[in-house]
Write a structure and sequence with these properties.
The complex is a heterodimer of chains A (339) and B (342). Chain A has 13 helices and 12 strands. Chain A has 339 residues and is an alpha/beta fold. Chain A has 2 domains: 1-36 and 43-82 and 234-294 and 307-339, P-loop containing nucleotide triphosphate hydrolases (Rossmann fold), CATH 3.40.50.300; 92-212, Rossmann fold. Chain A has an 8-stranded mixed β-sheet with strand order 6-7-8-3-9-10-12-11, sandwiched between helices. In chain A, strands 2-1-4-5 form a 4-stranded antiparallel β-sheet, covered by helices on one side. The relative contact order of chain A is 0.13. The chains are: A alpha/beta (339), B mainly alpha (342).
Chain lengths: 339, 342
């Protein structure tokens, strides 16, 4: 508890109102980032990673989304209860975000210069009154940082004139142009081919290392998490199920879901096809009671169906939301056996 | 360079469209039963006078020769003489067309400003009472024909409240402005006659509003739909997330991308309203080309019909080219794609 918390999410609940009812997507998410730390967030598609990140910046589309409860503290201030003016100070220079799909994240009818210029102009109060020429000069810097060739011409280009990799670099440049304290990278490069993806991630790693930026990295690729992050959260169906130092998590995954996730990684040395976890993410419209993973869990006990597991601390650097690691574990087992 | 290429290509296409239109008009005028010379001269004229007029009108020549004569005259702005009023058709068009153009331009202004304004308001306050109010209003606007609005406005604002005049383009006691464009408000402004301008504007408001209601409601609905859809896009979330203030996100980044469909539909609505203006012009006794055209059709006044159809066609093509230009200006994807195909 010596390092100060930069970001702390407490019991965040987000719902989406849809035609058939209410989707209870985030079901009490707890999450934190310390200053200077690189945190990984892994989980299947649709488990609520992006929703959590968008909630941090208050960019969820409301409606249909609704914050049903919880708090998000950034440097001690609750973002969810912030006034618009304070929020605008957090966005950009406080927390900034690289979006999953660079093509969707760039406005098709504005040039890179116009979009990047607007971001630069509002990144610092003193930039507000700069001339167009000066803004342009400043907007070139992030493009150079992400190693894009001919940045001068790029400023006058429209997104459709760029390749996918270039667009992703532009998005990274844009997110870093505000010089943020915390950078959220939502699966950067997922929409790119593997070699470009690797380049982009490498570049990102170098840049945040240089600036000492704290990072939340969302990804499907466990290898990337292992190489890049200090600490990892595993998310399943709107819940955090495990949190540990990266090294620990890979050495000894505890939650049955995390174990399944690790086994699902195809190995270069092994033969055959890697096994996935049977079943799929439950419906958010009518999520299973108790632990949301119990429908797919190979080690399910009776209590899992009734009660939602809290985080159990295994040691200082590892906690897991699973009754298997409860001190009363044996009793739970007996109960299950007698039934 | 790109722009010049686009414009010359469109002008070239327009020539063929107009040529096709002129053939159509010519054929329709000739296949109608009855002898135009006899119609023009009346039943009691002696046969030798009719024969001489037929000779003068080239009616004894083969069709393609007749078409050639007709076209050469039309290109020079000569549509002949109205068979009913004996007035020069070109003079009629010069008088009536600007009146309609003024009406439609002003209605277009109302449509654009109010339609986009209401749509934006609705999208920004989606599902709140203000959005619901705008939606009810626009449903009513879309389904109600413009003549109902015309009669309603005439009764309410013209007769009951007596805020606006209900007949014609200008009051009797106001000096007429010199004819420059033929549009009263603009001519009055150009001549510096403020009182005349004010009077002409007051005459213009009710018919223009009645004519604008339908397309305004349509534009409001379209703008709302596009905007509320675009509001959920990542490129909007991205600008918000990176600290660009809301005012700029919606006022600049959202607006430009959302206006593209609105402008395209606006062009169609605008051109259509020129011919739809008939009932509104009739109700407000507005001396416009629509009313003139319908009257000409009822009286089988061939020369006048040809002139009206041709002038409406030219207007339609011009408006379409302007709209395409604006859309190109808004959307680089169209610009770049057409540049690649050149």
């Amino acid at each position: 508890m010596s390092t100060p918390r930069l970001l702390e999410i407490k019991d965040l609940r987000v719902e989406f109102k849809v035609y058939g009812g209410v989707l209870k997507v985030l079901d009490g998410v707890n999450f934190s980032v310390n200053a200077g730390e690189k945190v990984g967030l892994v989980g299947e598609t649709g488990c609520g990673k992006t929703t959590t990140m968008k909630a941090i910046l208050r960019i969820l589309p409301i409606p249909p989304a609704r914050i049903a409860g919880g708090e998000i503290f950034f440097k001690g201030q609750d973002i969810l209860r912030m006034r618009k003016r304070d929020l605008s100070k957090v966005r950009g220079s406080g927390i900034s975000m690289i979006f999953q799909d660079p093509t969707a994240a760039l406005n098709p009818v504005f040039t890179i210069g116009e979009q990047l210029g607007a971001v630069v102009q509002h990144a610092r109060p003193e930039n507000r009154r700069l001339s167009k020429r000066k803004i342009r000069d400043k907007a070139i810097i992030p493009l150079k940082e992400v190693a894009l060739a001919d940045p001068e011409r790029l400023l006058d280009s429209y997104p459709i004139q760029l390749s996918g990799g270039m667009r992703q670099r532009v998005c990274i440049g844009m997110a870093l142009a505000t010089d943020p304290e915390l950078l959220i990278a939502d699966e950067p490069g997922t929409s790119l081919d593997v070699t470009i993806q690797d380049q982009v991630l490498r570049l990102l790693r170098v840049l945040v290392e240089e600036k000492g930026t704290s990072v939340i990295l969302i990804t499907h690729t466990l290898g990337v998490v292992r190489e890049t992050t200090d600490r990892v959260y595993v998310m399943y169906a709107g819940n955090m199920v495990e949190e540990a130092h990266t090294r620990k998590l890979f050495a000894e995954p505890l939650h049955p879901y995390t174990q399944g996730l690790m086994q699902a990684v195809p190995k270069l040395t092994g033969g055959g096809i890697a096994e996935g976890i049977p079943g799929r993410i439950p419906s958010y419209l009518d999520p299973p009671p108790g632990c949301r993973f119990h429908t797919r869990c190979p080690r399910v006990m009776d209590i899992c169906r009734r009660q939602k597991p809290p985080f159990f601390k295994v040691d200082e650097e590892h906690q897991v939301a699973c009754f298997l690691y409860d001190q009363n574990h044996d009793r739970h087992k007996e109960e299950t056996a007698t039934l | 360079m790109q722009l010049i290429g686009f414009l010359s290509r469109r002008a070239f296409q327009a020539i063929f469209v107009l040529l096709g239109l002129s053939i159509l008009i010519f054929v329709i005028a000739r296949v109608l039963p009855g002898d135009p010379a006899r119609t023009a001269l009346g039943a009691r004229a002696p046969q030798w006078v009719v024969d001489r007029l037929r000779e003068d009108m080239h009616l004894n020549d083969p069709m393609h020769v007749q078409y050639f004569y007709w076209l050469t005259d039309a290109v020079q702005g000569d549509f002949g003489i109205s068979l009913v009023t004996r007035r020069n058709v070109a003079d009629d068009v010069k008088e009536f067309f600007p009146a309609s153009l003024e009406l439609v331009l002003f209605a277009g202004l109302i449509t654009a400003v109010a339609g986009i304004g209401l749509g934006t308001l609705s999208a920004r306050h989606k599902d709140k009472w203000i959005d619901n109010a705008v939606r009810i209003f626009s449903y009513a606007g879309v389904v109600t024909p413009s003549f109902v609005f015309a009669i309603l406005f005439l009764l309410l604002f013209g007769l009951v409240l007596d805020w606006f005049p209900t007949i014609g383009r200008l009051s009797q006691d106001v000096p007429r402005p010199p004819t420059i464009t033929g549009m009263m408000t603009i001519d009055a402004l150009l001549a510096g006659q403020l009182a005349t301008f004010w009077d002409a504007l007051k005459h213009l408001i009710l018919p223009a509003l009645a004519l604008a209601m339908g397309s305004m409601a349509q534009e409001a609905r379209l703008t709302r739909a596009t905007m509320s859809d675009n509001l959920t896009k990542d490129y909007i979330a991205n600008k918000r997330a990176l600290g660009v203030p809301e005012r700029k996100v919606t006022g600049r980044f959202l607006l430009k991308v959302s206006l593209i469909p609105t402008v395209s539909i606006f062009g169609l609505d605008f051109a259509a309203s020129l011919s739809n203006a008939f009932l509104v012009e009739l109700i407000f006794v507005w001396p416009g080309i629509s009313r003139y055209g319908v009257n000409a059709m009822l009286r089988k006044d061939l020369n006048a019909i040809s002139a009206v159809i041709l002038i409406l066609g030219i207007t339609f093509i011009t408006v379409n080219i302007i709209v395409d230009l604006v859309v190109r200006g808004l959307d680089p994807r169209i610009r770049l794609r057409s540049a690649r195909s050149d």
